[in-house]
Prior knowledge:
The chain is of the alpha/beta class. It has 14 helices and twelve strands.
Amino acid sequence: MAEKKKRQxxxxxxxxxxLKTVGVAGVATAAVGFPAVLRGAEPEPxxxxxxxxxxxxxxxxxxxxxxxxxxxxxxxxEAGGIKSMGGAKLKVMLMDTQSKPKVGEAAASxxxxxxxxxxxxxxxxxxxxxxxxxxERQGIPHIITISxxxxxxxxxxxxxxRVQPDSTNMAELTCKYIRQLSDKGKLGLKxxxxxxxxxxxxxxxxxxxxxxxxxxxEVIGASSYGYGVSDLTTEITKIKGMNADVIFDTGYLxxxxxxxxxxxxxxVEPKGxxxxxxxxxxxxxxxxxxxxxxxxxxxxxxYYFNPRSPLTPKIMAAYDKKFTQVRFQxxxxxxxxxxxxxxxxLERAGSRDPKKIRDAMAATSLKEHMAxxxxxxxxxxxxxxxxxxxxxxxxxxQIRVVLPEEYSDGKPMYPFPAWSKRA
Length: 423
């Protein structure tokens, strides 16, 4: 008995102690080979926060953005994870902002407390204003998936980056494209009235006011409305009464659908048409599905994918296979590209340290992406300096890029026929 006890002590670990230490999991591991610690344990997942509205009036848009970002992550995980960190997989932690700044602020703080090394989001510009502020204060990189307001990146932040075009780009290029169409068709368009939602819509409207004179336009008035409206008869009657040559329209998907129906009912038919300027409905397949031929000929100066890129059909097919409830749309493009930017930065950083990830992101030069334009590269404010919008038009219920020509898959049909000839 004494000899047996001596042998146990010399071994350093008794059978009872071993079983108590490793438990059933250890025994199960031993049954298939060596313990995980000997074979090399898989690295802990890298946590990434996703802040998007998945309930409320813009839930469809918010989910399409979250899906686009998730797709990029899933494809990276399927390809072996972050190789510079031993194949560590990415785990996206999605939280609903409800399109409310206070909710977004609390969600951003929670995701950081839970260990997220970077955040993505948040679609509604007022929400992104506060989620980026939380990230900057905590020193956590924040890649903006979708949010257009220039003001977000005009606060000297160092941890925030945006892939998509900003409101300056959207306003200026929309004015430019419509001037080109006016001159080509000898329409002599001179005046603009702007119908827009508050919040990011006001940011776009201010920029249109700034750039319109450079393209020989005068903004003669505007009509604005609040988030979540159910009737826009009064506002559209006001805009109709301005008798502008062209109406610019800025808003989200749900209010955009409402506006198209109201424009038709009130027979709003300016000679230069109703043109989306960063409009969430006017180059959106969900709006086309909802309204059918009413959407034909509608144009939108907005971010979109590059239809000539060989990457585009592959990513769209992968999205449609994975996500069947919410369709791929223009928002998904830049969300996917934002995911690519973060993944690229993580590979180059080779670290979970937020400061190193931020520095890698600032040095981004990503050539392969879905959007038109040159490689994604950021200026000192964090804005993608090569981002650009295109002009889309719905033709036979298909969304086509019509300007600029080098990224187009269709030719512009302008001016528009009357509503009665579309339905």
